[in-house]
Structures are given as structure tokens and as C-alpha cells.
Design a protein that fits this description.
The complex is a heterodimer of chains A (263) and B (248). Chain A contains ten helices and nine strands. Chain A is α/β, with parallel strands linked by helices and 263 residues long. Chain B contains ten helices and no strands. In chain B, helix 1 packs across helix 5 and helix 3 packs antiparallel against helix 5. The interface between A and B is large, with 39 and 33 residues.
Chain lengths: 263, 248
């Protein structure tokens, strides 16, 4: 369903993703794990047409996102690592906007929006602007939104960051259910090893832009002779803490916050 | 078509919901109108050029459209910062449609604002003798709004963050405004300045609007329209191209 072959992304001299190859089968839940700055988000961006690879190729359900951009984009839904809802629109408007962009017919759109907002317990707040929402509610809205157009593939880039255990639990249950019942392929990244262990069929560990190893959670544990996935992860990637340089985007966020305060 | 509409609608909703922006966008033209209009009014009259408010009002309306449009375009940077841009960039829709929808939305807001500023001008004593030409005034407002929203979008597509925004204001937007003939007649200015004014697309907006509202023109309407249509088409093409190349 998802296939990456010899994928490379360079930013100037820095190689963020260094010749990675993997294959995710239809109906599989695939976890992409790695320390900060390992290249997880860059990979997701290349898979989802936001970045053009320096070299190598991607295929989503047989479609190359570089040459068949629009068709490839229809195949997937994505929950980004950082927020991507419009603060000044209401929850319902955000959903509706998404439905129109993905050309979901009006009647079906209304039904699905209602079902999804109810499922994620946001229906009562549908008329509120998103800027009044807490972090967890925004996250739930983004997840609900990514499912609106019934994609075949879902990308979840650290979807549970900043969520309480209740919401996390609910989210993974829902993801598993979708995967079981509708054979939706899931590609996820997370820093919570127990989550990956719980939901993923297969795991790839990436560090310094390269895939260190991939296989089922049991295989990784057996390979490293460890008891838990967390220990296996540390055995494979070492104990050094990674420093990430602030991107221009992070700098701008800081500036934006200051600017808003002044305003 | 639905895509263009929903993006257009989003721009309108966002503008209508931001009260600070609405108030700010009327305060500025009013300040210019009062300070310049009444400040220089008697001098302008003594120089034999007639009533300055009459002359100035079309310039101030154009100014408010210029600023609002550039900001509407630059808003792409905000969307990039607050993440919403990604939602539109991964959608299975040609990016040019996204750009067109945004641009039309921003331009609509600017034109509405231009009309409100026209109302303010009328309230402080501006009189338009040529009511039948109001549709022509609207044409110039729309062209100007689309042009500069597209310019703002193009700039926002290449600026990584807000650091460059001050430069854009100081070295692009302010000169476009001050050298356009919005504040003074282009008839008797030094040659170098006239060359710049002739190259400034806003000069043709101001001139066209001035003709539509008070019947005075420097370049003539056919030239105004031709230049504006050409530059607007080019800005849309460049803005659309740059927007479709955005990577986040």
C-alpha cells in the first residue's frame, strides 16, 4: 500500500533521510519510531506530497505522489504533528471545509461530520470557534477530520502528543477498530513505546535518517534480547539525547506568540 | 468550483470575525484622510489645484485596498505558522484553485473595505459628481484588490517567516503607495519621480478611480485598464506558480 524505495532528502549539506526503503502492506499498522530529529516527520512529508524527495521513489496504492499528485492525495488522511486546524473557524466549519476539499458530497458530508463529531465527543461544541478548544479537543478534531473522507491510508504523526490517557486510549481503540473493520492501512510515529507495542503489527526504527531495523515488536525484542520495546529501542538507538536545532518555523512560532501578545 | 468557494468563504468569515482588524483597517484611512486632507487642504487650494479632499479621497480608497490586499495575501504566512496551510496543501485539489479561492476572498474583503472607506470620505465632505461612473470605480477597485492580494500571496510563498515582512512594507508597499500619485498630482513632478510613478501599477489604480469618482485622469482610462489587467494577470500567474511550489 505504501512503498518507499531508496528515499533520500537533503537540506543543503544535511541529509535528513538517507536512502530508506520499506513496504507497508494493505491493512497493516506500521509504526515508525526514532529519536528526535531522526527523520520521521521528513519521511511523512515526502510520503504525503508536502516535500519533494531529493532522490528515490514513493508509491501510495500504486500511485506516485510526484507525478499523480491529486490522485495520490485522495488516498490518505493525515494527522500532523503540529496543529493544523483553523482557530477562527468553528469545529463544524473546519470539518465542512475539509469535506469540500476532498469533494465529499453534501449529504454524506453532513452525516459523516455528525457521526465523527459525536464519536470524538465534540458534537456539543460544534458551533464554537476552535480557538476556545483545549489541546486535547483540537487533537480529537484533527483526528475526526482526517477520517472524514474515508481514506485508505492514515498517517498519524505523533497523534497522542499532549493527550491525556483517556483520550489516548480512545484514539488507539478507534484506530484499531478502523483497521480491523475497514482494512485501513495505518502509518504512525510516536514516542510512546507501549503504544507502538500495543497497536503496531510491524515497526521500523529510524536513526540519523537510516532505518536501523524493522520487524514485528516481538522480533525486535528477540533481536536485542530485551524484555520491552522501550529497552529494544534504547539498545538500538543508544542513550544519547538528541539536540534539534530550532527550525525557522519554530522561531517564527515564538515570534508569532510575542507578536500576538503585543497586539 | 466548490473549492474556490469554500476558500473564498473562509477568508470572509475570518475577516468578519476579527474585530481588531476591522477597526484598525478603518482607522488608518481615516487618519490619512483627516491629516493630509485638512492639513494640506489650504495649500493645495492656494496652488490653484482646487479642493484637496476631492483629489485625495480616491487615493485614500486605493491605499486602503492596497494595504488590506497585501495583508490578505501575506496571511499565507500566518496559515503556515499556525499549521492550517498544510491542511490545504495535502488536499487532492490543484493548488492553483486554492490560491485563486484565497485571492478572491482576500480581494472581496478589500473591495468591501474600499467601499466603506468611500462612505467615510463622503461623510467628511467628499462629493462625487459622476454617479453613473460608479460601476467603473468598482472595476478599478476589484482589479487593484486582486492584483495586490496576488502580490501578497506571491511574497508569502517565498518568505519563510515574518522577518522579511518589515522589508516588504518599507521597500515595496510604502513606495508603491507614496509614489503612485495617491497624494499629489503627477503633472508637475521631477522626471525621475515621474518615471517611477509610471512604472508603479498603483498609479493606474489611483488614476482610474479618480476618473471614475471625480472625472480627472492623468493617463486616460484605456491605458489604466490595459496596464492593470496586464499586471493583474501576471501577478496571478506568478503568485499561483509560487504558491503551488510551497513546501513545508
Amino acid at each position: 500500500m505504501i512503498r518507499a524505495q531508496g528515499l533520500v532528502k537533503k537540506f543543503g549539506d544535511f541529509t535528513a533521510v538517507d536512502n530508506i526503503t520499506f513496504d507497508v502492506a494493505k491493512g497493516e499498522i506500521f509504526a515508525f519510531l526514532g529519536p528526535n530529529g531522526a527523520g520521521k516527520t521528513t519521511t511523512i512529508k515526502m510520503l504525503t506530497t508536502l516535500l519533494r524527495p531529493t532522490s528515490g521513489s514513493v508509491s501510495l496504492d500504486g500511485l506516485d505522489p510526484v507525478t499523480h499528485q491529486t490522485a495520490a492525495r485522495k488516498q490518505f488522511g493525515i494527522v500532523f504533528q503540529d496543529p493544523s486546524v483553523d482557530d477562527e473557524l468553528t469545529a463544524y466549519e473546519n470539518m465542512d471545509f475539509h469535506g469540500v476539499l476532498y469533494s465529499v458530497p453534501k449529504k454524506l458530508r453532513q452525516e459523516r461530520i455528525e457521526a465523527l463529531l459525536k464519536l470524538f465527543e465534540l458534537w456539543d461544541r460544534r458551533k464554537d470557534q476552535v480557538k476556545q478548544f483545549s489541546g486535547g479537543m483540537r487533537r480529537r478534531l484533527e483526528i475526526a477530520r482526517s477520517l472524514l473522507h474515508t481514506p485508505k491510508i492514515i498517517f498519524l504523526d505523533e497523534p497522542t502528543l499532549g493527550l491525556d490517557p483517556q483520550t489516548r486510549n480512545q484514539l488507539w481503540n478507534h484506530v484499531k477498530k478502523l483497521n480491523d473493520e475497514e482494512q485501513v492501512t495505518v502509518f504512525l510515529t510516536t514516542h510512546y513505546m507501549e503504544e507502538a507495542e500495543r497497536v503496531a503489527h510491524r515497526i521500523a526504527i529510524i536513526d540519523h535518517g537510516k532505518i536501523v531495523t524493522q520487524g514485528s515488536p516481538d522480533k525486535l525484542k528477540a533481536q536485542t534480547g530485551t524484555e520491552t520495546l522501550e529497552q529494544a529501542f534504547l539498545a538500538l538507538t543508544g542513550n544519547t539525547i538528541r539536540e534539534e536545532e530550532a527550525s525557522s518555523l519554530d522561531k517564527m512560532r515564538t515570534f508569532g506568540k510575542a507578536f500576538r501578545r503585543v497586539k | 468550483m466548490n473549492v474556490v468557494y469554500i476558500l473564498w468563504l473562509r477568508q470572509l468569515k475570518r475577516s468578519a470575525r476579527s474585530k481588531a482588524r476591522i477597526i484598525g483597517s478603518f482607522a488608518q484611512p481615516l487618519l490619512y484622510l483627516l491629516a493630509f486632507g485638512f492639513g494640506f487642504g489650504s495649500m493645495f487650494q492656494r496652488a490653484g489645484q482646487g479642493n484637496y479632499i476631492q483629489f485625495l479621497a480616491p487615493g485614500i480608497i486605493t491605499m486602503s485596498i492596497l494595504f488590506t490586499s497585501i495583508f490578505a495575501g501575506i496571511e499565507v504566512i500566518w496559515d503556515r505558522q499556525f499549521g492550517f496551510l498544510k491542511e490545504t496543501l495535502v488536499a487532492p485539489v490543484p493548488r492553483i484553485l486554492i490560491m485563486v479561492g484565497r485571492t478572491l476572498g482576500g480581494a472581496t474583503v478589500s473591495v468591501l473595505q474600499g467601499m466603506v472607506v468611500l462612505g467615510i470620505c463622503l461623510a467628511v465632505g467628499f462629493r462625487t459628481p459622476s454617479l453613473p461612473l460608479l460601476p467603473l470605480a468598482l472595476v478599478f477597485m476589484i482589479l487593484t484588490a486582486v492584483l495586490f492580494t496576488a502580490v501578497g500571496t506571491a511574497l508569502a510563498s517565498v518568505l519563510p517567516d515574518f522577518q522579511g515582512f518589515q522589508l516588504v512594507m518599507n521597500f515595496l508597499v510604502m513606495p508603491i503607495f507614496f509614489l503612485s500619485g495617491a497624494l499629489f498630482p503627477l503633472g508637475n513632478i521631477p522626471r525621475a519621480m515621474r518615471i517611477i510613478a509610471n512604472l508603479d501599477p498603483l498609479s493606474y489604480s489611483v488614476d482610474g478611480l479618480r476618473f471614475a469618482l471625480i472625472g480627472v485622469t492623468h493617463f486616460g482610462i484605456p491605458l489604466d485598464l490595459a496596464v492593470l489587467c496586464g499586471v493583474t494577470a501576471a501577478a496571478l500567474a506568478i503568485g499561483g506558480y509560487l504558491f503551488s511550489r510551497i513546501q513545508v
